[in-house]
Amino acid sequence: MNLLSQNEQSNIPHNSYKTKSRKSQSSSIKSVIATMAMLPSISSNHSEVLITAIEMVAEPKPLLAITFACISLLALLANCTLLIYIIYNRLYRNFISSHFIAHLCITNAATLCLLIPMLIYNVWTGVNIWAHSNVMCRVQALLTCATWTVIHFMALCIAGVHLLTFARIHYEQLFGLSPNMLCVLSWLLAFGLALPTITNGHIIIYDPSFRHCIWGDSDSGLKFLTYLLILGVFIPASLASYAYIRVLGILYHSPIVFQSIGLYKSRFLVYSFLFSPFYQLPFYAISIVKDWRKPDSTVPVVMLFLAFMQCFISPGLYGASLFLMKEEDMALTARAHKAPNAHPLTQHL
C-alpha cells in the first residue's frame, strides 16, 4: 500500500504538468481563433473609417460660395478672352511664349470648370459632393494635383522664354524641344506625380475643413505630399524664380539701355511672377498641421481657394507680358536667317 501511494504521489506532478500543457495549448488555440475572427472586423473598421471620412458634414456657407462663384466666373472670362486673343491674332506663329500662355489658359479654364464648381457645391451645402463615391473623390484629388503641377510647369516654361528675351538667347539653345512637346510632357509628368491618389487608397480623404478631397494625415498621405511638393512645386518654382532673378539682374545692370527700348517698366511684372508661387504656401502649411484647421472655420477653405489663385491672376499678368516683354519675333528671325544678303547685325536681332 505504501508503494502504491508513493507511485501515485510520484505521478501527481506529471499529470498536473500534462493538464497545464493541455490548458495552455487550448488557450493558445482559442487566442488564434479569436485573432482570425478579428481580422474581418479590423478590415471592416478600416473601411468604416474611410466611409466616415468621406461622409463628414460641415456647416453650409452660401455667402462664401457665392463669392467664390463670382470670382471664378470673372477668371474664366479672362482666360477665355486671352485665349481667343492669342488664337485670333495668331500670336503663336510669332511668339513662343504665346504657346505656353494659351496652354495655361486652357488649363486654367478646365480647372475653373471642373474643380471649382465641386468646391463651391461643398461650401454651399457643407456636404461632400462625392460622399457615396470613394473613386470620384480620388479622381477629384488627381485632377487637383495634376492641374497645379501643370500650372507650375507652364510658369517655368514662360519664365525661361522671358529669360531668353532679356538675355538675347535663341529658344533652341535653352529648351531644345518644341512648345507643343513641352506642354504634352508637362501633362504626362503631372499625371505621373498624381497617380498615387488613384492607386493608393490610404492617401486621399475628404477633409471637411477644406471641403475638398485631399491627402490625409496618414503616413502615406504625408509621403505623397512630400514628393509632390519637391517634384511638382519646389523644383519648377525654384527654377522659375532663378530665371526671373536673372532677368532682374540683367535689367538693373543696364537700366538705361532697357529703358530706351521700353523694357525697363516690365520689372514690375517680374516681381509679380516671383511672388506667384507663394499663394499656395498657406494652404500647404495648414494641410500639414492639423491643429490649424477646424471644420467650422472659413480660413482653411479660403486658403484652398487661394491655392487656385494662379488661375485667377495669370490671364492679367501674362496678357500684360505679351505687350510689355517685347519678345523676339520668330517669323522675322527666321526670314532674317534665310535672307542671303541680310546684314550681319540683323541676323542677331
Fraction in beta strands: under 5%
What CATH calls the topology of the largest domain is Rhopdopsin 7-helix transmembrane proteins
Q: In the residues, how many domains can be counted?
A: 2
- CATH evolutionary superfamily of the largest domain: Rhodopsin 7-helix transmembrane proteins
Region (Disordered): 1-24
Organism: Onchocerca flexuosa
Transmembrane segments: 63-88, 100-121, 141-169, 181-205, 225-247, 268-289, 301-325
GO cellular component, one term: plasma membrane
What does this structure look like?
This protein has a two-stranded antiparallel sheet. The longest helix has 53 residues. By secondary structure, the protein is mainly alpha-helical. α4 packs parallel to α8 and α8 packs antiparallel against α10. The protein folds into two domains: 54 residues; 289 residues, Rhodopsin 7-helix transmembrane proteins (Rhopdopsin 7-helix transmembrane proteins, Up-down Bundle), CATH 1.20.1070.10. The chain is elongated, with a radius of gyration of 31 Å.
Furnish the topology, listing elements before pairings.
Blueprint: H1 2-54, H2 62-88, H3 96-125, H4 134-167, H5 171-174, H6 179-194, H7 196-199, E1 204-207, E2 212-215, H8 219-253, H9 255-260, H10 267-275, H11 281-288, H12 299-307, H13 309-324, H14 330-338
Antiparallel strand pairs: 1-2
Task: Report a brief summary of the structure.
One of its GO terms (molecular function) is G protein-coupled receptor activity. The chain crosses the membrane at residues 63-88, 100-121, 141-169, 181-205, 225-247, 268-289, 301-325. The chain has 14 helices and two strands.
